[in-house]
Amino acid sequence: xxxxxxxxxxxxxxxxxxxxxxxxxxxxxxxxxxxxxxxxxxxxxxxxxxxxxxxxxxxxxxx
Length: 63
Description:
Elements: H1 3-18, E1 22-25, E2 35-39, E3 42-46, H2 49-58
Antiparallel strand pairs: 1-2, 2-3
Helix pairs in contact: 1-2
């Protein structure tokens, strides 16, 4: 992950945290779902940081 993506991930992780969720990064070589949104034992695979941005908006964050 390059520096821009690392910063973007950190920003998104903070937005998820404000909503009571966690954004988790998987192995960098995992192309299927390199990110996961987690809350209360529920796990949602996310294919990209763009998908993470869409999801955080759906749960009320990122405003």
